[in-house]
Amino acid sequence: MSTVLVINSGSSSLKYQLIDTDTEQVLGKGLIERIGQRTGSSSHSTPEGEHLTERAMRDHPSAFRAMIDAFRLHGPALDDGTPAALAHRVVQGGARFSGPARIDDRVLQDIDELSALAPLHNPPALAGIGAALEAFPGIPQVAVFDTAFHVTLPPEAFTYAIDKDLAARHRVRRYGAHGTSHKYVSRRAAEFLGVDVDTAKVIVLHLGNGASACAVDGGRSIDTSMGMTPLEGLVMGTRSGDIDPAVLLHLSRRADLSIDDLDELLNRRSGLLGLSGSADLRDVVSRADSGDADAQLAIDVYLHRLRHYLGAYLAQLGGADAIAFTAGVGENSPRIRAGAVATLGFAGVQLDEVRNSSPERGERIISAEGSRVAVLVIPTNEELEIARQSVELLGT
Ligand code: ADP
């Protein structure tokens, strides 16, 4: 086994990467957007260059055909055992999937059944899997779940304090998300420091458009900030994160907002966007720098929430070996990293300002010599982790 085609299928997009798992090289990757709309676009890149196409894509099967065409036209060729397997990212695996699963009728049925918990995410993943089974018959296919890493959460961390029978009936509990990233980054952090993965205590801050924190004890997730859905926890690009549930009752009664309005408000019109008018942290920072008070408050709220979770996870873990920053914001924003750990001197966290501000990329340490807790930047690589887990499952 050497090549895995990793598929991330959203409601109107298809992302893919062909990865050689021996060399860990990306042989080809692409993004197809606006599936089901009147105009569509796709990009396909190989180590030799990038190719852009404008073409409408009716549905997921047509997007799959476009992807196969792109490989045929621009390489690398999909033949002679390439890909050896397909691996699909699936957001919600519930309490059912604690690791990757080889796709068969039973697994398809379970993913479909879990759509009740992730109506925006599981159905498009299923559409992608259906198209892939049709396009690549006879090649093993695997589902890798964002929630799987968090099945180790103890009951006190995953249980909401509400009526237990009602919660059980509707499977209301915390499942977490970003698990593939948290698993990859926490392991790399331990390896980077040369400490045993099985005993390392690592707090991972995955800060992208979506954002979540995770407390990892000996390679196991023991707490995470996303809940039943990816709405709970940190302030995100367009999502509110934590909020008093009574705010919803108040807005429903006083502002006459429907369930759908509230869903739209919290998922798409809150977070950095709601506070400052932009969901992109780069914009928010540049506006704050030119004196925009809303943008400055958005950054302050974002950092306040990050410190809240860092403090909580230091307490849950009883200290940490490392704090690891990852994803778009975590990998690129010295300001957010510095603001997040600024008050943690008492817990043995000492940032090195020069290391933190260095334009260096890749895995790196940004804490000072002698800091008891190491602060690291570890670029995430969810596709590689998905490919690796699939190879491990298929065992060839
Ligand atoms: P996604 O969750 O969609 O994968 P990413 O991990 O790419 O998102 O993160 C996107 C976020 O990263 C955006 O808010 C973007 O502003 C932020 N970001 C990227 N580069 C920088 C930077 N240099 N400084 C601050 N924020 C950045």
Brief write-up:
By secondary structure, the protein is α/β, with parallel strands linked by helices. It contains 15 helices and 14 strands.
Characterise this structure:
By secondary structure, this protein is an alpha/beta fold. It has 2 domains: 3-145, Nucleotidyltransferase, domain 5; 195-382, ATPase, nucleotide binding domain (Nucleotidyltransferase, domain 5), CATH 3.30.420.40. It has helices spanning 60-74, 105-113, 122-135, 155-158, 164-169, 179-193, 246-254, 259-268, 271-276, 281-289, 293-317, 327-332, 334-341, 353-357, 382-394; strands spanning 3-9, 13-20, 25-33, 41-46, 49-54, 85-90, 101-102, 141-145, 201-207, 211-217, 220-224, 322-326, 364-365, 374-377. It has an 8-stranded mixed beta sheet, with helices on both faces. It is globular. Residues 208-210, 237, 280-282, 327-329, 332-333 line the site of adenosine-5'-diphosphate (ADP).
Task: Describe how the helices and strands are arranged.
Elements: E1 3-9, E2 13-20, E3 25-33, E4 41-46, E5 49-54, H1 60-74, E6 85-90, E7 101-102, H2 105-113, H3 122-135, E8 141-145, H4 155-158, H5 164-169, H6 179-193, E9 201-207, E10 211-217, E11 220-224, H7 246-254, H8 259-268, H9 271-276, H10 281-289, H11 293-317, E12 322-326, H12 327-332, H13 334-341, H14 353-357, E13 364-365, E14 374-377, H15 382-394
Parallel strand pairs: 1-6, 6-8, 9-12, 12-14
Antiparallel strand pairs: 1-2, 2-3, 3-4, 4-5, 7-8, 9-10, 10-11, 13-14
The chain binds adenosine-5'-diphosphate.
